[in-house]
Amino acid sequence: MKYIDEFQDPMLAERLLEDIHAAVTRPWALMEVCGGQTHSIIRHGIDQLLPEEVELIHGPGCPVCVTPLELIDKALEIASRPEVIFCSFGDMLRVPGTGRDLFQVRSEGGDVRVVYSPLDALTLARENPDREVVFFGIGFETTAPPNAMAVHQAAKLGVRNFSLLVSHVRVPPAIEAIMSAPDCRVRAFLAAGHVCSVMGTQEYPELAERFGVPIVVTGFEPLDILEGVRRAVRQLEAGRHTVENAYPRAVVAQGNPAARAMLDEVFVTADRGWRGIGVIPDSGWRLAPRYREFDAEYRFSVDGITTREPAACRSGEVLQGLLKPHECEAFGTTCTPRTPLGATMVSSEGACAAYYLYRRLGGPTTAPLEASTRD
Amino acid sequence: MTSTEAAGPAAAGTAGTATAEAAGPGDPAVDFSGWTCPAPLRGRERIVMGHGGGGALSAELVEHVFAPAFGGRALSTLADSAALEVDGARLAFSTDSFVVRPLFFPGGSIGDLAVNGTVNDLAMSGARPAYLSCGFLLEEGVELELVARIAEALGAAARTAEVEVATGDTKVVEAGRGDGVYVNTAGIGVIPHGVDIRPQRAAPGDVVIVSGAIGLHGVAVLSRREGLEFEVGVESDCAALGGLVADMLAVTRDLHVLRDPTRGGVAAALNEIAAAASVGVVLQERAVPVPEQVAAACSMLGLDPMYVANEGKLLAFVPRTEADAVLAAMRAHPLGAEAAVIGECVTEHPGMVVARTGLGGTRVVDLPLGEQLPRIC
């Protein structure tokens, strides 16, 4: 397939792997920021092919994983109301809140619909003027601009029965929080390519300098990821720490000015809770005061819902690379993909869920897979 | 479409064991009452969409509700159809309900599916499909012309598949209490002597063959679903596989397993076979034929072609000694022209399906939990 097959070529992958093997002389822990990258790494088995010195720590960039339990409980409460049509991207329907998920709300009579764009939700609102249409606006800098556009359009068109349940988060404050943790092991970042296609790369030089870490803007296909790893390892081995763009076919330094203008128009930065990590100051967006009437939390008065994350879940340590998933007491016993205790076991992109799959295979007779658990 | 049979009691039993090992709610050592976060959702009190998705939730429904209530030996196999002895003749018997939306899609309609779905379930036991029953559940207000078009498609598909619609039934529900048109079919076929095809017969050393390109039906239907229309140039592969199976059986009676990978796709079908026979399956990912348009649509939607439904493909587990002959017979048939060896059956990792990726890595191809959902990123 044009523009996909080229970036999965096994021969080119081998050349990149040889380069990486030749360059590395000592152990390095790299964090891939985005869940899409984690997905690609697991799907193609890339981590098993890297030299054992190169460890990939799966970062907090899976929107499903990091959306706080409290917000999901708010979504469940709003979606249960008879006047509401609750719209969401598909994979949020399965994420459990406190004892329920959106599938269950739907089976109890709630009008929960999967849509593919927030603008589809806006169309639903215009077609159903007697109903309240709410869109579940979560995710990183990538999903924020279309959500901002939907609110902007709603205001412009005077659609009063549309609102956004919003919990957008931003990558740079998460990098800062991870690097500020006392025992942080991360030595380089593969920055999320699509986030940078919106935001550009201007937020990163300061972080690279302050924490002394290479930051390589990286894409999502296997060759993209190997190229990101190769560049990060070469910087580390040379003692450098600069921002590099290894995804130039999608990312330019200034990002997407129209999308950024839309974000500035509709959102303001705010403190956000990250599931498994906690509140990170100024790490997300909420609707600007002038768009407050489109804020579902305000409209449906769900501010009172507060939910504590379970103490047993140590996903925050996993996300920082301080703990291997299988070293957690709950791993594979009380915490499995079917009965997840926390963020990283919820999504197939989460580090714990990924480890769970490999561990099921693991055993003394399956040596190639043992390597992936890096015992 | 074949969720209950596709996730029969044998698979459910295995899934249940695995869950118990992982300390499910039935394990007295674990106290779930104090949990504040993601409670185990097995304790659902209502049907959710995933119960019909052909994955683990479907399997649990069969294991915990239907199998105990029905008893009987027919439900205790994991085949797409039940094999029954009647006066010395061996009959295959199967039923399937069709709730697809939209009713007409590129390459077919609910009428084609209603015939081919049940015919294929029969064919997967090696049976020669013979007779179908057909039940229509119609919603008050549906246009007669629409019903006639579906009936014509159904009749034409039956003639192509060389089966006779021998009996039928029609019910009408009040407006608002249905969704236009649902169709149920049941079918009977005759299993030839010396043929014993069932998931439990998968054995280490077997070669795994797929009869052609995967993912076409699921992508074709998605491309016409309300709110998600996109131009992809893909038609459903909806087809009756009885003729292809007959040609394979003409080469050898010793086919171990046949399976049509409908809901849950190739991944679900292989997982169920691996679990039923306690064998491992190793796939060569690059050998799996995925059309460019299917790969592109899946990439856009965040779906995995291995989990996307097919309606005119089969998976065959064949002894290595017979593989070349079977493959040649398949390729000589129009519905098997693109047949390919995609993997093998092994003794390692019983009950699990493992893919060797194009780059040389390895990943587990798990049973889908419920519906496959488009991902956010």
Write structural notes for this entry.
The complex is a heterodimer of chains A (375) and B (377). By secondary structure, chain A is an alpha/beta fold. Chain A folds into 3 domains: 135 residues, HypD, alpha/beta domain 1 (Rossmann fold); 124 residues, HypD, alpha/beta domain 2 (Rossmann fold), CATH 3.40.50.11740; 59 residues, no CATH class. In chain A, 41% of the residues lie in helices and 19% in strands. Chain A contains 18 helices and 11 strands. Chain A has a 6-stranded mixed β-sheet with strand order 4-3-5-6-11-10, sandwiched between helices. In chain A, strands 2-1-7-8-9 form a 5-stranded parallel β-sheet. Chain A is globular and about 65 Å long. The C terminus of chain A is likely disordered. By secondary structure, chain B is an alpha+beta fold. Chain B folds into 3 domains: 60 residues, no CATH class; 113 residues, 60s Ribosomal Protein L30, Chain: A (2-Layer Sandwich), CATH 3.30.1330.10; 166 residues, PurM-like C-terminal domain (Phosphoribosyl-aminoimidazole Synthetase, Chain A, domain 2, Alpha-Beta Complex). Chain B contains 10 helices and 14 strands. In chain B, the strands form 3 sheets. Chain B has a 7-stranded mixed β-sheet with strand order 9-11-8-12-10-13-14. A 5-stranded mixed β-sheet of chain B has the order 1-2-7-5-6, with helices on one face. In chain B, strand 13 and strand 14 form a beta hairpin. The radius of gyration of chain B is 20 Å and the shape is globular. The two termini of chain B are 28 Å apart. The relative contact order of chain B is 0.16. Chain A: This is Hydrogenase formation protein HypD. Chain A: Belongs to the HypD family.
The most extensive contact between chains is: A-B, 74 and 49 residues
Give the C-alpha Rg of chain B. Answer: 20 Å
Report the CATH topology name of the largest domain in chain B. Answer: Phosphoribosyl-aminoimidazole Synthetase, Chain A, domain 2
Oligomer: heterodimer
Domain unit count of chain B:
3
CATH architecture of the largest domain in chain A: 3-Layer(aba) Sandwich
Could you please say which CATH topology of the largest domain in chain A applies here? Rossmann fold
Overall mean pLDDT score of chain A? 88
What value does the average pLDDT of chain B take?
Answer: 83
- Report the end-to-end length of chain B measured between terminal Cα atoms: 28 Å
Compute the number of helices of chain A.
18
- Compressed to H and E, one letter per element, the order of chain B equals HHHEEEEHEHEEEHHEHEHEHEEE
The top-level CATH class of the largest domain in chain A is: Alpha Beta
CATH homologous superfamily (4th level) name of the largest domain in chain A: HypD, alpha/beta domain 1
- Return the CATH class of the largest domain in chain B: Alpha Beta
How many helical elements of chain B? 10
What is the domain total for the residues of chain A? 3
Number of strands of chain B: 14
- Summing up helix and strand content along with how strands pair, one would put the structural category of chain A as alpha/beta
Bin the helical content of chain B.
25-40%
Structure classification of chain B: alpha+beta
